[in-house]
């Protein structure tokens, strides 16, 4: 009898994991922005070239990394965010898998610069296709910069699958907006091919929405607020008369994380019942806070889907609070057929 099973070498395992974590330049943008947020940055810059195909760079003024961490962060399952399985049920960070940097470094050229506040000098590390190329001491500002070049350089099929710059750029803008909306207190700027696309000074959530989607948005928003034991909801929905034929801007954040949920979307549509013209959709920006142990974020590698303990209760609370807000702000003609 001969045995044929082997453990895959790390760089192969990383490349396979990268297939899940990194679908396109926008995935890199999401992971780097979230890491910067987790590092408690108050100022985050996103710089891209050619829709992220030539460059995705994120510069933060966060905690930075020690020299040991600066090497270790590229290892798979290397994370400072959880230590034991129980921590998964009390997450306060965006990351926890310790997979993003290992994946990105497996399929791109990465230059990282990082310095902790208390250190005199920082570290500049270059890694390409999981191989360390160079590491040197450098005079750097506090914080971390990741520059990702030549994404998918060693997976031509993947590279060829990328869509036009317009499409890839759209995905990046989406990711940027999600993180910027989730963290209005952080200063975000975004440059594409040298020109500034967004400049978002720290503010509150209403002002952040307006800064991203233009001043006209302000008058369209109705505030929503509800505090119960299982969820606290705050945010804004659009007045029914501003509903759009397209999907409009629709955002759910759960514990400051952007998520997609067809079920909760349905709760919102139910709250608007009888108020919308056929085929029109409202915009919404809703921030839900739930006790961390009542959700499971781990069901999707990119973490945009989560599982709630009590989805039905959430549905009912969301629907009724939005209905209440729409009524309270007297935003629509009184429609009897809603009863
Ligand atoms: P995760 O975010 O799931 O922990 P990542 O692969 O994204 O995994 O990052 C690995 C580790 O590298 C993080 O846990 C963190 O300690 C460190 N790190 C990554 N990005 C930054 C950053 N911008 N500033 C400081 N530390 C960082
Ligand atoms: Mg991360």
From TrEMBL:
Keywords, alphabetical: DNA damage, DNA repair
This protein's record includes keyword Cytoplasm: no
Residues of the DNA mismatch repair protein S5 domain: 209-327
Record keyword Cell cycle present: no
Annotated function: This protein is involved in the repair of mismatches in DNA. It is required for dam-dependent methyl-directed DNA mismatch repair. May act as a 'molecular matchmaker', a protein that promotes the formation of a stable complex between two or more DNA-binding proteins in an ATP-dependent manner without itself being part of a final effector complex.
Family: Belongs to the DNA mismatch repair MutL/HexB family.
Name of the protein: DNA mismatch repair protein MutL
Source organism phylogeny: Bacteria, Pseudomonadati, Bacteroidota, Flavobacteriia, Flavobacteriales
């Amino acid at each position: 009898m001969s045995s044929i099973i082997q453990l895959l070498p790390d760089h192969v395992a990383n490349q396979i994991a990268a297939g899940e974590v990194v679908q396109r330049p926008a995935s890199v943008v999401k992971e780097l922005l979230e890491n910067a947020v987790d590092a408690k940055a108050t100022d985050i810059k996103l710089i891209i070239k050619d829709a992220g195909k030539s460059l995705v760079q994120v510069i933060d003024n966060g905690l930075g990394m020690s020299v040991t961490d600066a090497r270790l962060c590229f290892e798979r399952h290397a994370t400072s965010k959880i230590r034991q399985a129980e921590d998964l049920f009390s997450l306060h960070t965006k990351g926890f898998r310790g997979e993003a940097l290992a994946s990105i470094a497996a399929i791109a050229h990465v230059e990282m610069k990082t310095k902790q506040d208390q250190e005199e000098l920082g570290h500049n590390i270059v890694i390409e296709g999981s191989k360390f190329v160079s590491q040197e001491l450098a005079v750097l500002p506090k914080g971390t910069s990741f520059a990702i070049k030549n994404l998918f350089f060693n997976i031509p099929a993947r590279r060829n699958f990328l869509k036009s710059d317009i499409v890839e750029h759209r995905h990046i803008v989406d990711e940027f907006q999600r993180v910027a909306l989730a963290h209005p207190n952080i200063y975000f700027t975004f440059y594409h091919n040298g020109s500034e696309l967004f400049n978002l000074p720290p503010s509150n959530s209403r002002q952040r929405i307006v800064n991203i989607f233009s001043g006209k948005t302000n008058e369209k928003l109705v505030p929503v607020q509800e505090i119960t034991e299982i969820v606290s909801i705050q945010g804004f929905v659009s007045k029914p008369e501003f509903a759009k034929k397209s999907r409009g801007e629709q955002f759910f954040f759960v514990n400051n994380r952007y998520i997609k949920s067809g079920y909760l979307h349905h709760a919102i549509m139910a709250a608007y019942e009888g108020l919308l013209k056929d085929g029109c959709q409202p915009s919404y920006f809703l921030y839900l806070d739930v006790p961390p142990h009542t959700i499971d974020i781990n069901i999707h590698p990119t973490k945009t889907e989560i599982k709630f303990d009590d989805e039905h209760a959430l549905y009912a609370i969301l629907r009724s609070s939005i209905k209440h807000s729409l009524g309270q702000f007297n935003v629509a003609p009184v429609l009897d057929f809603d009863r």
